[in-house]
Amino acid sequence: VKPIAVAKPASIPFVDLGAQRRRLGQKLDAAIARVLAHGAFILGPEVAELEQKLAHYAGVRHCVSCSSGTDALALVLMAKGIGRNDAVFVPAFTFVAPAEVVAWLGATPVFVDVSAATCTMNGASLEAAIEGAKAKGLRPAAVIPVDLFGQPADYRAIAPVAERHGLFVLADAAQSFGASLDGRPVGQWAHATATSFYPSKPLGCYGDGGAVLTDDRALAEALLSLRMHGQRIDKLGAHQYDNVRVGMNGRFDTLQAAILIEKLAIFPDEIAARQRIAERYSRLLSDRVETPALLKGATSVWAQYTIKSEHRDAIKAACAEQSVPTAVHYPLPLSGQAAYRHYPTAPGGVPAAERLASNVLSLPIHPYLDEATQDRIVAAVRGALG
Ligand SMILES: Cc1ncc(COP(=O)(O)O)c(C=O)c1O
Q1: What's the first-to-final CA gap in the chain, in angstroms?
Q2: What is the pLDDT confidence band of residue 7, given thresholds at 50, 70 and 90?
Q3: Is 252 in the pocket of ligand 1 (CB under 6 A)?
């Protein structure tokens, strides 16, 4: 007897960039055509226009765009002269970039535990990590509180610790640009804020890109120079082949800036849609799994909708069976990874990061996720839990 083939349901995109592309339609084509016509592909007029719009959006004085979110972090650390013997405090539970850039510069990433509820850096663990770094003869230099899954880190707890110990605060807002804390936008909570325009980020372009936001004029000027191989830049402009710093090619493409200007115009509406979808997920799931917790006074741009459950692996498998994609952000704390496990960890270790790594699961979220599709995702999650 031949087995009867059971068709699997059609797969759901984790992030549906096509739906956004259809919405922007002709506007995006026209923006790209304008750049092709003027031909200023490197640092053309759209780059400056976008930087001005992003600075205005976040309510800061300066925005310097650059080649990626990773480079945005690196450029700031380079501008601050971070290097050998400097300790830079990074959460153990995050994407690798904030630790990676510290290691590039010969400085020491020190891994800090996170809070179990919000998954972002824990102020008490930071305090302990600073003392631990000092005991090892390192100079506590900077902290990179990472804004995870769309909400800001707990700057109200971290800023006073940083201030007490003279740490430079570099916010990693790759996942949170557009969010706020106590009514103040991301961009205003640190000495400098780095963000990413990776395509799947809430504000993403069609390639790699990033930016730094700051009120510090001297820092912004150094960043402009560093992203252009450390060129001398003065009132007359950039002086090619006159290098006053060791920099990099860290520029953002004009084409990508033109694309992002169009996407920024619909960004507030997209954030509102993400918020509606996240609230609906929480309503439909909170009796069976731990749904995301926001800090009091925080908003999120829902870069991820990440649930927690001790049955994570079973839920993941059941979703895959129903062609519902999921992702584990992140399966292993940085402090346990091969390339990083020789760096110091906060005294007391990172138990919350370790627990999260075994129970988090991100569900599909994007502004164009319709209710019927969301219901299918919810059914797959609930189905796994019997
Ligand atoms: C928290 C965090 N930091 C930094 C980055 C790096 O950004 P990019 O991929 O643009 O280099 C990402 C995303 O990829 C991220 O999620």
Answers
A1: 31
A2: confident
A3: no
Q: How far is the CA of 2 from the centre of ligand 1 (A)?
A: 49
Nearest CA to ligand 1 atom 7: 69
pLDDT for residue 2 is more than 90:
no
Indicate whether residue 343 lines ligand 1 (CB < 6 A): no
Nearest Cα to 68, choosing from 96, 39, 38? Answer: 96
Show Cβ contacts of residue 296 under 8 Å, excluding neighbours closer than 6 positions: none
Q: Where are the alpha helices (DSSP H) in 153-249?
A: 155-164, 217-226
Beta pairing partners, 112: 91
Structure tokens that stand for 338 in this block: 């091969």
The response to whether residue 150 sits with its C-beta less than 6 Å from ligand 1 reads: no
In short, whether 44's Cβ falls inside 6 Å of ligand 1 is no
Residue by residue, what is the 3-state secondary structure of 291-326?
CCCCCCCECCCCCCEEEECCCHHHHHHHHHHCCCCC
* Bridge pairing between strands 184-185 and 108-112: unpaired
Average pLDDT over residues 102-113: 98
Residue 386, pLDDT score: 84
Percent of the chain with pLDDT over 70: 98
Exposed / middle / buried, residue 239 (Cβ in 10 Å: 0-12, 13-18, 19+):
middle
Q: What six digits make up the tokens of 367? A: 């502004």
User: How distant, in Å, are the alpha carbons of 170, 309, 316 from that of 286?
Assistant: 33, 11, 17
Q: How far is the CA of 69 from the centre of ligand 1 (A)?
A: 5
- Angle at 352 (CA atoms; ends 349, 358), nearest 5 degrees: 115
CA angle centred on 123, ends 56 and 102, rounded to 5°: 70
The pLDDT tens digits for 266-278 are 999 999 999 999 9
Q: Is the pLDDT of residue 1 over 70?
A: no
Ligand 1 atom, smallest distance to 68 CA: 10
